Amino acid sequence: MKLLHVIANGFKNCNDSFEIDFVSKSKKTAEDKEYELQEIADDLHVYNTMAFIGKNASGKTTAVELLDACYSILSDFRLDGKPYSYENVELCIDFYHDGFIYRYETILKNADSIASKAIFMKQRLRKKKYYKSKTKDLYHDEDFVDVEITGELPEDTSILFFVLKKKETRAVYFDSFGNGADTYRLIFATLKDYHIRPVLLVKVISIFDENIHDLQMLDDHNFKLSFCNETKTVSDKELIYMLSSGTTKGMLLYILMAASLQQGFDLIIDEIENHFHKTLVENMISLYKDKTVNRNNATLIFTTHYCELLDLFNRQDNIYIAKSNDKVYLTNMYDGFNIRSELLKSRQFYNNVFQTAVNYDELMQLKKELKVWKNS
Amino acid sequence: MEKLLIMCEGPNEKEIIKILLENDLLKFTEDDLLGLTPYHARQIKSSGQVKTELNIYPGQVRILRIGDKQSDKLVIPSEYKDKILSVDKYCTKPELEMLFILAENLEQDFEKLKSSMKAKTFAKEYIYLGKRNYDNSTAFYTEYFGANPKLLVDCIKKYHKHNGSHNKDEHYLDELLK
Q1: Which helix (H) or strand (E) holds B39?
Q2: Do B35 and A31 touch (CB under 8 A)?
Q3: pTM
Q4: What CA–CA distance (Å, rounded) separates B77 from B58?
Q5: Residue A284, SS3 per DSSP
Q6: What is the domain range of residue B54?
Q7: Which residues of A fall within a CB distance of 8 Å from B45?
Q8: Do B68 and B111 belong to one domain?
Q9: Of the residues A181, A247, A360, B123, which has the maximum number of CB atoms within 10 A of its CB?
């Protein structure tokens, strides 16, 4: 199963027909096929990496939250515990599975007043056989035929269950808040759930902190730490004071990345540059583009303010620019702008080609105010 | 310590290097390579992956370009000038398909036709694997040489003897062999 395309109406403060597409649109060079794209079916290419960029409060996080919601439905057939209302959100999700393109449509409702979970209304599931010759009409609505649904499910369970059948991680969402002291337990749970060898944790730890030689879990809250040639038992709360927050977050994120690459599920990271050093971010991007490592078609999806990262992207169609006026909207860099491919993308951002620059006048207004303070 | 950055002109050159690396037939191993792998990249500026790996590595690199003629000059972007110690090109002229032609001992037949026929076209017509004609695919290289890396080494050596007229700045692939 691979998610191809999402259209949402009424999701948070997004504009209508809020659309994200994972299928390549522009010309595919041989080098792109090697590093930028993955071929999930004959001549059906989706991205190894996808980026959302924009200034603060432009809606980047909202875009990845929408993807997280779609993946939750595709993974667990349910949607719950999200920090927003589901009321009247219309979703149209296209995905590839076993030789077919599926189109799933539904309208969400809050199951209760605290919006803890969603119920699925007006569900419709259709499919069409994938043919290489019809890649241009991939989303053409009239070709889809209804999938016959014979059973019944609770209203908080999506009918996607009848096609995908098994709960499975399709993506993990790593938000910008972190999990505090619980991070260490999550690290070991990830190692266990995805059968990752403990030696990988040791390798990850040494990237972040050369003084730590080993970390083992004794129980949910206590750990054995080998630190500067000394081994001691520490609680998770002690550990979070001993290790930097970057190390703690980075360890979990790198372990999740390893699981994603090994299992082939997607990894969604909000504000990738917030978590650690630029070199580590570049390393992550490079690993998703290397087919000797990313053997199972995992995709790295991230938001960033850091436009220099986009200079490492050979394509434009896997970059979305988020902007907001009264509503949040996305523009695909390839579809929405006429940028010569040889120009540095970061330079275009600084030249404000995408109208994403921080408002200079506002900055100067603040500076003026600060100058007045000094004089008075 | 310096690393080697291997930039292959196409996926087929990359496959040749991969087979040689996997069978430990080169003077260097994967550990000596930038990013532990050879790259399919003609130019640095147009390869996000090569730029990323150069950004990650704090040391210096020597570039080995692998291709046929490689008449286009490698442009080193200014931000990487201090990182790159040298650039050397390793050629298989006129085209990589010469390796198949030599493997099948068809070099004299090709000599007769080479003024009117490209090595690639000749290979498509006369090189087989079982019943399958050469089709310029990477899979063909994998199947043809992957199971028989010794044949690949022999062909690379034979190429040097067959074509001893490289220009001064054009190295032979056999210089990279153990």
Answers
A1: strand B39-40
A2: no
A3: 0.91
A4: 16
A5: helix
A6: 3-91
A7: 342
A8: no
A9: B123
